[in-house]
User: Fold these one by one.
Assistant:
Number 1:
Amino acid sequence: MPETLVKTIGTALTTRGLTLQQRLSFVLQSLIPRTRATVMNPWAEQGSIFNRLTAEDLHAVIESAKGGDPRDLFALYRDIVLSDTHLQSEFNKRKLAILGDPLSVKPRDKTNADDKLAAKAVQIAIDTYRAPNPEDITSCPWLRACSHLLDGVLWPVAVLEKVFKPSSIPGLRFEFGELAIVPENLITFQSGPQDVTGKLKIRDTDANGYILGTTRMLDTSRYMVHRGHLLSSHDTWGGPMRSLLFWKLFATQGRDWWARFLERYGSPFLLGKYDQSDDDSRAILERAFSYAVKIGGLVVSRNTEVEIMQAAAQQSGDAFEKFIEIANKEISKLVVGQTLSSGQRSGSFGDAGRAKNEEGVRQDIRVFDAMMLGQTIEDQLIAQFLRINGLPGRVKILWGGESPEDAASLGTLLVSLSQAGLQVSDDAVEVISERIGFSVQKAAPAIPGGGMTGLPLSLLPLATALEAHEAQDDIARAAAAEVARAFRGSLAPIRRLIALSRSPQELEQSIRAFYSDYDPRRQAQLIEEALIAYAANGAAGVTAGRG
């Protein structure tokens, strides 16, 4: 049990004049974080080592992280993302695929009143949350907080601090006070030379954000931890981003080597020729070359031969371009799961098929990221929010829906089911809403107005709208009072079908067509009741209507 918790319980138990319930309430409320514990100072950031990195330095950085101190490794990750336009663009694509979709809070069980109330409370709390200090880069609005957690798809771990405050929302005790970034340089897995546990810890800072020599265990009531990847190795091994380190090292060194090559051989250079036995001409030519830089030209004799030579930089440039292209493709495959979105397409049939397959991979990654981020928020933020507010319900966090192609396929499937005389159940409507990203509901059966628009034209009797209204009025006024009472609401059109049908067979066909989306057993029950009503009242009503 943490030492702070022991002290809190001891204080509560020795407080006189309080009931047991009040003491327990005191303990629980004291465990709710209400102030920030971590402070970020940009001047306390780990220095950059990327500009002087060698292969030996990179191995040393990896070994230091494996030993429990990942500060240099995380600083290297930071510098790589900030300095690489391609990696930064691909990383942004990965995040925007989630953050660009609308967020919705749904009850875990839509029939459970507690779950529905909890979903409404969470949605209100998210919508009303505002970062208390916009000038502080670590004090995040909701989307920026989610963006920081999504660093955990490449970083081994991303940590966010959560603070609650007394709520101004009616019915809630506490609401979100602040969501704050925990800088990576404060993450460590060592509390000292003798620490061999390898557990995640947070470095302490002073009031100005400078790192102290002490650490504290990560408190799940205060911090959120997101691991958005599938690697099962320990955080100290570097996460998915580690696989890009050597690609970036060689690409950066290759860029430096290419710049040196161009500096030495990229510009044209002069080649002079002289007679081997004429030393005077050679001396004149050498002096002319030395003055060429100052005067911008050459002064030589008429018989002296001078040529301007161009280095074969094109072939070297092609090799450099291909290497950078390969490095960027490896980055794209890791970050977004495909390469076509970052390169040119030739438009051939093969590329079209490949694009479809790679888009499927990208959608799988998007769905996975949304599920992982939603689970982290549900388990480490929303569950605590509901608990401290005394709400017993459960919710689920959803981002957007399926891709347009998958949504179109789902729509085609639903149309095919309807044409086959099948319909989705009420339970399936919620699943469909989650898949397409917005709420839908089953359409009510079409109720005819001026005409029987719900029936196929082949089943409509040859009667005018005026005759139909007259027939319905006659039934209501004369012998069909029982029919009017029996068929109400969505079954009201059956009264008109009885009035317009010339035979029991025609009535049965009309009911089957009009209520085609009903369960077959329900259809049979309606037909049976309608035929009984037709036998008792139909002839009189029809006769009166047509008389």
Number 2:
Amino acid sequence: MSLDPEHVRLDRLNAGAPFLKVHEVDTLDAVIGSVVPGSARIENGRGIAQVRISERADVEPIWRDIQAGHIRAVSIGYQVHRFEVSKPEAARELWRAVDWTPFEISAVPVGADPAAGFRAQSPLHDCVLHRRDVPSTTTGAIPMTDKPKDPADAANETPSDDNAVEDTTMTEPKTPDTEPKVAAAETRVQPKSQKPDVAPAPDTETVATRAREIERDRVSTIYDLAGRLNFERSFAEDLVKRGTDVDEARRLILDQVAAKSEETRTFSQVSIPLGGRNEAITRRDAVANALLHRYSPTLFQLEDAARQYRGMTLMELARESLGNAGVNTRGLSRDEVATRALHSTSDFPEILSAVTNKTLRQAYDAYPRTFMLFCRQVLATDFKAMHRVQLGEAPQLLEVGESGEFKRGTLGESKESYKVKTYGRVVAITRQTLINDDLDAFTRIPAMYGNSIAQLESDVVWGIITANPAMADGNALFHTTHKNLAGTGAALDVTSVGAARAAMAKQTGLDKKTVLNVRPAFLIVPASLELKAEQLVAQNLVPAATSSVVPQSIRTLAPISEPRLDTASETAWYLAASPNQIDTIENAYLEGQQGAYIETRNGFDVDGVEIKCRLDFGAKAIDWRGLYKNPGA
């Protein structure tokens, strides 16, 4: 390989060629970095390039081994465009590449010789390009990676007169994996100057046979590479139709791999730079975890990264956040540190925001919302009124006469409407809270908000049951006209529940004729009747009398106890069907704002942080036929 700068095309390297693991081109994971554009050059008979290492987690161990000196060797992949062939006296024929292109650099376990490796005392990484022989019967452009030659062969070669380049001695040979494949069908060698001792061209039949083999190999290799990298088949078909040789196809495939690889960074020295965005996010999450663990060790387990912040006060964390942002806090009073931490570009406000969000969400999810079992949840796209159609039964099928005429039927319907409403509140946390190390202000207050939001949802839904609002037909939700209200109140027992089940089963469609056979799934009671309801549906192993047997159909009811019902009546109880069988009550959140939502900002009216809590929620009874009420006794 000639290392004359005029003989080496460095455009591919200087355009940002990939830095690979051991010449792997089959997967994106093989790309562990890239060549810094414009850094490749030939200097004193050596090829030198600067590489940037990827920030991916799986590349970090490789970078550490490079830093520690465990990985020292590098290798290149290249394509030869032109050979000069000469045959010295009493020696083998010498092929010298005088026009070639390196297109990738790889980290390898064993290099061609000790000089091919990373610089130990330089901010750049150098790569020494070695020459390589090919069999004398092979002609044309040949793709190569640098592999050591047999020492006996190397001793018999001498450079041509017009390309005198000192060859590098191979002192650490490695066994080549495979012989290189011929990538073009060209069989004619163009020497730099006419010499009488150039090898003769092979016969026509040999050329034709070889050309067919090369073409089959070219097509299969291109399809195989594209398939293993999950490229579209049209990409490989285009390369085949254009007659692209294997080396050029590999170059184009590497371009695609490099384009999809993750963004990399340049290491100007051995130490890994800190302060990047990923490191800042990791530190922010660790501080938030330490604060959450301090708030509730049982709910939030302490992570390893957060142990260094355990026991630090809010003021100490604020001072460290300012220091990480480049703010010198030496000589600042506690008040000045608190003010700057809450109003500067440090990540302290984001840490507090993360803490408030997690504590609010945890409290919101932990609050028992008993209505969710028998209600249907939907999402609203806006705050406009949503119209829900109460579909009737499908019309009865009629016998088709000999004429084959089908009669048309219609679906009865009734309409209910409601809309999502916004509920919210803002509370301010001042710098005095930070100075006093009052962590509860950032944890317990949001937790109370989360609890309050869950309570508000329950108030809205259970308020429908206790208020008994009018439906679209003008009658109350529970009304004798709707046949879902017992005429005489009865205590909760097998007989009264059986009568309620029968009434629900007899509910008819909007045509007042079709029996719907609605089956209850839930027994809803106030807290005062919770024990009695549980006893009613409990398993009777040895009943005292036949009359004491509770049928299986009643024991399958799931009891729901809600203390909000006690404020309206301590004796009334209800049955509800599954929302999968028939509509009952529907509740809706604004799309993208499901459940509790909280946000923080630097205060303007107050000297501190403002926390805004918001809920976009609505509910409405859609159909009365899936609900039944007994006033009790």
Number 3:
Amino acid sequence: MNARKWCFALWVWSAILSPVFAGFYSNVLLNGGFEAGASHTNITDWSRFGNSYRYAYASAHEGSYALLAYGNWWPDNPPDWNGTGVYQDQPAREGEIWEGTVWARSDTCVTGRFFGELQMSFFNAASQAIYEVRSARQLVNGSPSGTWTQLTARAKAVRSTAYVRMRPIVVQSPDFESSSVWFDDAALYRRPDSTLRFAGREWVYIDGYYNPGPNFFSTNSAFLDESGRLHLKLQWLDGKWHCAFIESPEPLGFGEYRWHLNNRVDRLDTNLILGLFTYALESVLKTNQNEVDIELSHAFPGMQTNMLLYSIQPYTIGGNSTPFLYPQTNDLTTHRFVWRPDQVLFESYHGHSPTARQTNDLLASHVFRGRGIPIETNEKVCMNLWLFFTNAPANTQEVEVVISDFVFVPFNGFILLDEFEDGQKSNVWDVAGPAGAVQETNGCLVISPPSNGEPAGYLTHDTIHRNERGTRYVFSAQWTSVTVSRACSGEDVCALLYLSTEQDSVRAANSAVALEGRYDADSDTLAVVLLAKTNAPGADGIVRFEGVLDSAASKIHAPGGLGFQLALDPQAYEVSVSGPDGQCLALQTNQGCSIGLHQFGELLDYAYWFVGAQNGGLGATGTVVWSRTVVGVRAQEQDMAIEELAYAGGQLQVKFPGAFQAPYGVYASTSAPDRGYVCIQSNRTVSSPVEQVNIVPTNPDTMFYRIGE
């Protein structure tokens, strides 16, 4: 959008619109030619603002009437910009591509900074404007008079869209120009296309005049060649420089974003910028711009030599933008970033490959960590080639960038994984509790908390970064041993996992969620308790769930032990306890529910993760042993395709990609592959990037296998 922002009063949506949505290319506007109306000021189906009037007009584009719009009769005090026009609203939905057109004409030349244009805006159900585009063409000083010009605005409806607003408008500057513009034959319709297919994905063209720059962006400036390569081109069209901009229709979320470039971008014109990035509009999220960005340009201040820039928005915060030298020596380069909840890895290197083939190929790399990492929201993948501050290219030549491929790999992995195998605390952790209470040995974290009830264990040195906008996080740990050295009446020792906004203790925190395993040696029972609190320092929290497991010691000490999992979705929690085979164990519910809504919002977006234990009351003491803890993202789609098959020594080795906490099954058939499958192994927890299963086939020559949940 243009750097100038206009603020106009919003009239009440006067008509109750039926929920009937437009067909492709059908004009949904009513009275688009302004032929109907009770008077100059009462224009059927349109809402007026400012000095806009319906008149009989001998030079109407079609019909007998048109709309005349002009600025104020006298200057504001103090002088200010003002807008005049009409608008009409129609239902719209996220993802739809809308195009509005209107014919415009000035009988005499437009003067000064006065201009006429077409604006198209998207609104949510609360009548809040969430996105706006403007026509690339405008009637301005120097535009021909006495002739009709069609103004066009096109855009895709963003998240939460409820309706689209069509608005022919003139804007008068503080110079108080006396110009006027006629409008006629307005149309608004939904388009079925405005896309191109590149790298196996659909992409939407961006058309219009708006930021960055602002620039004119044109569908004609992005196209594919006969080899399927994408060309982003700066072109001289209709007396103006037009830039290229395409974006993905849908957000992709956390993962790897990789672009393969096919020409010498180090030779870009000094006023041009190539952007490869993810982006969500500030107006969509009602917060800072949400962006992870790779930019190649000589245009930015100080970037004549360091023309490669890795950025996290807002770039004005120190450390969010990092420039690099860019000594490109051949046409083929790869630029990528891996966007995770806890970090963003940037890399640029020669060649086209998933990673740099050798050290000398690497051009630049950078890892960003901290609280500025963007969250998943309605961000889109974008590619653009644009002029800095709309400055013409220094050599006045057309320029293009060629991109042969784009690759996205979703993130389905671990933010934190410690199997306590190295016998020493890593720098991920701080020790909580008195000296000697915590030991890491033989692949285990052994915790003997003090008798005063103080917790002990490992606490992350930095906060775990998660968010509440679409990604499911799983916090888990494997409990493999419990020993009670001095018992008491009731709870003896408690295995303790928690997320907390404070590092010193869960009780001192403003907000926290704790998953406890309270073991009673006398009854050999385990009470699994979930406590949660929001903005309540000094409190223990409210019990959201309590379930009981009988014959607990044998289950804890079984090979593999008990897996404790706490899953946090954007709005809900889920508690589960699993056995060594990965199956969830049935708990006798005493209170609450193991699945429910939480009230955290974004309070635990940055929180410390604790793995530990504490003793029960009345002087009881004991020891808890954890063998593993994991914090990860549970994939919303699990890829279970077989990666490798090998048959040797009477065994078939099946390898396939693993995904965090995904149950799987290996199915076999001796018949046709579409029937007769039998599950031969399942209900285990995938815990490594590649899982290997060894099978003894009954008849390897005619066996069929498939992997699935």
